[in-house]
Design goal:
The complex is a heterodimer of chains A (504) and B (115). Chain A has one domain. Chain A is built from 22 helices and two strands. Chain B has one domain: Helix Hairpins, CATH 1.10.287. Chain B is 63% helix and 0% strand. Chain B is built from three helices and no strands. In chain B, helix 2 packs antiparallel against helix 3. The chains are: A mainly alpha (504), B mainly alpha (115). Chains A and B meet through helix 6, helix 7 and helix 10 of A and helix 2 and helix 3 of B.
Chain lengths: 504, 115
């Protein structure tokens, strides 16, 4: 069990180094990358099974007792996120095998991807705020390289904005950590949660909480801090964009959920109200941005922002059902969103551009792709019986029970506009006749056959079927999400798992 | 002493924001450097300035005899300095490559990926 907590970090590190060593052997490197991602996924599934059976588990690294040493903690939220992260890593590795050009692969795409997954798992598993900062930096460093790898002008411009704003957020995060340490004398999350239960003056904590909100808000791309995302996410190759869409902003949301359920719970009527308002604005601005765009990747990038709003809404409502629904929604969104990017990557591979006005006729020529798109797009928009419907249903139900009717209106309105922009992609790219000017690049590009076809289509097929399965088994999965929400809303179990008998 | 350090931290943050808002790529980097310095110094100050000796325990004892300085903030700052060093080195290279491929160091002209 201890090993299971260390493996999600240790495996990508080990394989990342191995991948660096086999730098000059592309075939070996790719095989090792797939093996590593598959093992990581296996570990993630095992971890989730263990945690859901036996409860929260903590490991004190180096055997230094908490709160003095660094603690790794796997509760339900962490292990769900680790598993989802590993799943996205696995499908993306398969997808990258043929979609990533050999030049980028030769400059270390696979090792860096492995280190990125290490940083993501580390962020999910750590039980210490400063350690969270360190894992964020590991993840950011890898993501900077992936974003800039290749060196196109557009990539460089996107990377400048991405790097600057993320470093600014890290600076704020670090400052917030410093002030928090000065005030409380500890950075272990469980220890903080315990000491803060008896704090006399919560106003100082609320100030620090706002610093954390801005720092994580930039990383999670919530309103009004999201502008770096649509300016940079569409610049790298589609495989990189899909990884970012599936993983990186979700790490920011994870951090928000963690600190605002465990640590900063002194004045929820103030802090969580702010979160609720920000969540609402995030949904609407994101989806309006998406409605205005005709370039598939930019349209989908704005949708990432919009969907983040739903997760923040669940956190802000601050009931077990709502927080659980936010976790369910996050898992669903990682599947559906990543898949939409993958499908747009296939469209680019077949036609050579991402502009909806020039695309068309995919339903006639590639009906399977069209159906897979329909599943993911309708899942994202929340059409029953797919996964997004149950996520939205649980969120709306939680909001109605909390009597926050305003956010219900915003959420349903956003759902409608999401459906609108998904239907826009459907009619433009799949349904309408291909513009005649488009016929020539279609013939110029080689047809999608054989191993390349399998490498691109298997991940899409996997993610689409998982979206369906998540809808079919929504009852059991919502139960799990609800348990996650209850676990998050009752930090005593977490504190006890970390601090042992010294806890409450 | 705290007040002096607080003013220095404030000045570093003000300088950082000022530089970040300039249009020049190199000033952007300088702004990020100042920001990380400000954050490091802030940790140092907010964890408490003291004249206590380093936390070394005499041989044969289990706890230090007098009050000692808290070593943790310094460990945090050291880690943060190493990280910011690596990240800023990357940012510097990134700016150089951007300058090479875009032939400009004016941030206002690096807007082709927006809108």
């Amino acid at each position: 069990m201890n090993l299971l907590l260390i493996l999600p970090i240790g495996l990508p590190l080990l394989f990342g180094v191995l991948l660096l060593l086999v730098w000059r052997h592309p075939f070996l490197q790719r095989s090792l990358a797939v093996l590593s991602a598959a093992l990581q996924l296996g570990v993630g599934v095992l971890l989730l099974i263990q945690v859901s059976r036996h409860g929260i588990h903590a490991v004190q690294l180096g055997n230094w007792p908490a709160p003095f040493g660094i603690t790794l903690v796997a509760d339900l939220l962490s292990s769900i996120m680790v598993m989802m992260g590993a799943l996205i890593g696995f499908v993306m590795t398969i997808y990258s095998l043929y979609s990533m050009d050999s030049e980028r692969a030769a400059f270390g795409y696979y090792p860096i991807l492995s280190f990125l997954l290490m940083g993501v798992s580390g962020s999910f598993l750590t039980g210490d705020l400063f350690n969270l900062y360190v894992w964020f930096e590991v993840m950011l460093m890898s993501s900077f390289i992936l974003l800039a790898l290749g060196g196109d002008r557009a990539q460089m411009e996107g990377a400048i904005k991405y790097v600057t704003l993320n470093l600014f957020a890290s600076g704020l995060f670090l400052a917030a950590i410093g002030i928090l340490y000065g005030k409380m004398g500890t950075l272990n999350m469980a220890d903080l949660a315990m000491k803060l239960q008896t704090i006399e003056d919560p106003r100082m904590m609320t100030t620090i909480a706002m610093l954390f909100l801005v720092a994580f808000g930039i990383k999670a791309a919530i309103f009004p801090l999201f502008f770096w995302l649509p300016a940079s996410y569409h610049t790298p190759p589609i495989a990189v964009t899909a990884i970012y869409a599936g993983l990186l902003t979700k790490v920011g949301v994870y951090a928000l959920i963690r600190v605002f359920t465990l640590i900063f719970t002194q004045e929820p009527e103030f802090t969580h109200q702010i979160l609720l308002v920000l969540g609402g604005f995030t949904m609407v601005t994101g989806v309006l941005g998406a409605a205005a765009h005709y370039e598939v990747r930019r349209l989908l990038a704005f949708h990432i922002v919009s969907q983040i709003g739903y997760m923040v809404m669940g956190l802000a409502l601050y009931t077990p059902l709502a927080v659980g629904a936010a976790v369910f929604y996050m898992a669903h969104n990682m599947l559906a969103k990543t898949n939409l990017f993958l499908i747009s990557g296939v469209m680019y591979r077949l036609r050579g551009h991402y502009d909806l006005k020039k695309l068309g006729g995919f339903y006639k020529t590639y009906p399977v792709l069209a159906i897979l798109f329909m599943i993911s797009a309708m899942g994202l928009a929340g059409v029953p019986p797919l996964s997004g419907f149950f996520g939205k249903l649980a969120l709306v139900l939680a909001a109605l029970r909390a009597e926050s009717y305003g956010i219900v209106v915003v959420a349903l309105f956003t759902g409608l506009l999401t459906l609108f922009s998904m239907v826009k992609i459907w009619t433009e790219a799949f349904w309408k006749e291909a513009p005649t000017a488009d016929a020539s690049p279609d013939e110029a590009l080689p047809p999608l056959v054989g191993a390349e076809r399998r490498s691109l289509m298997i991940p899409i097929f996997m993610l689409a079927s998982l979206t369906v399965l998540m809808g079919v088994f929504a009852g059991a999965l919502l139960d799990l999400a609800l348990r996650t929400g209850e676990q998050l809303m009752n930090p005593a179990e977490y504190i006890h798992a970390v601090l042992g008998e010294g806890g409450p | 002493m705290e007040i002096l350090f607080a003013l220095i931290v404030g000045a570093l943050y003000a300088g950082a924001v000022f530089c970040l808002l300039r249009r020049h790529l190199v000033k952007l980097i300088i702004g990020l450097v100042l920001l990380s310095h400000g954050a490091n110094l802030l940790i140092f100050v907010s964890a408490g300035l003291s004249r206590n000796p380093p936390p070394l325990i005499a041989a044969g004892k289990l706890i230090p005899e007098t009050a000692v300085a808290d070593p943790l903030p310094q460990a945090l700052i050291l880690t943060a300095i190493v990280i910011s060093f690596a990240v800023l080195a990357f940012a510097l290279i990134l700016c150089h490559r951007t300058y090479q491929s875009a032939k400009t160091d004016d941030i206002d002209e690096l807007r082709t990926t927006e809108l």
